[in-house]
## 1
Amino acid sequence: QLHIVESGGGLVQPGGSLRLSCEASGFNLDDAVIGWFRQAPGGEREGVSCIGSKGGPPYYADSVKGRFTISRDKSRDSAKTTVYLQMNSLNPEDTAVYYCAVGAEFTTVQALCVNPMPNMDYWGQGSPVTVST
């Protein structure tokens, strides 16, 4: 059983920053893609940023390029890893529930990230992010 624990969401003013954390544990994550997805009220779930396990470049949605940075820490325990999403220059359009998800890396990181629902197997509970004055 894979466990995902998210933290770091909250309320921030436009132009501010937040850092989301996703701790995944439970089984071997050496070949897993981990990503952040978001869903605004009335909207579809979209891929924000994903990072693979093989050292290749992460994927970023066009709307967050240059503002968000994803990083992945790997502990000595291959069954545990933490992924961070540093979000800078936030604007009201970034308001959404942010979900961390894990999937097998059987294709490109971008392909998995832009089409998450059939590909990402495990999902966190969601962290609300609100950007408002």
## 2
Amino acid sequence: QVQLVESGGGLVQPGGSLRLSCAASGFSFSSYAMTWYRQAPGQERELVAYISSAGSITNYGDSVKGRFAISRDNRANTLYLQMNSLKPEDTAVYYCRNEIYDAWGQGTQVTVSV
């Protein structure tokens, strides 16, 4: 059974940093590209970042370019999202996803506020 479990969210002040993790199980993690999405209240789910199976290719949404970094540890079956210079508009529930299995995690809340 494919399972994705996010962690690392929380409350942070503007300009701060957080590191999200996504523990994957039930599939060959190293064989698949992975993505991070986010959904703010009242808004559609938005693609934040993409990483290829080996980690050699990454892409980012325009709103997070230069501030967020996606990475992965294929030995630990874990996906990461390093978020720096956080802004209030980054407030959302963040999800990791495997597109091929159409699998989503339960999400982790990130709140950026003074």
## 3
Amino acid sequence: QVQLVESGGGLVQPGGSLRLSCAASGRMFSINKMGWYRQAPGKQRELVATISNTGFTEYGYSVKGRFTISRGNAENTVYLQMNTLIPEDTAVYYCKRTQDNRDYWGQGTQVTVSS
């Protein structure tokens, strides 16, 4: 089993920045992918960004150039630096870890972009 705990969400004004963190615990596999997804009210969950254990990254179209995903020194942590936030970024952000053909999800953290 794997547990994921997100932190760093909150309320920010348009144009501002936030940094989300996700820490995984439990049985870790060296081959894995971690990432962030988000879900706004009335919309489907969508990809924000992912990063593999080799450092390969993927980004959703709407966040390219504004968000940056990275790994911590510990293999089990991942960060999402969000810059130039816009109201359309408002959503619950979920951390996900994929390993051994299984997906694990965090409980989510709310990000609200509003003046």
## 4
Amino acid sequence: QVQLVESGGGLVQPGGSLRLSCAASGSIFSIYVMGWYRQAPGKQRELVAHIIAGGTTTYADSVKGRFTISRDNAKNTVYLQMNSLKPEDTAVYYCNIDWKYWGQGTQVTVSS
């Protein structure tokens, strides 16, 4: 069994920054891909970014240049640094590992 614990969401003004963290624990031998997804009200869940074990990253076009994903393999933890936040970034952000396990979600609200 695998558990994912997310933290770091909250309310921030446009142009502000937040850093999300997701720590995985449980029956994990190694993790190939770690990622962040988000779901806004009335919309489908979408990929924000993911990072493969070797360090290769992929970003949604809407966040390129503003968000940075990173991982600490020793801690089985993935991070999402979000800068220059916009109101349209408001969503519940979910951590995912190996396209299989999901975190409980953390709310990010960008509003003045």
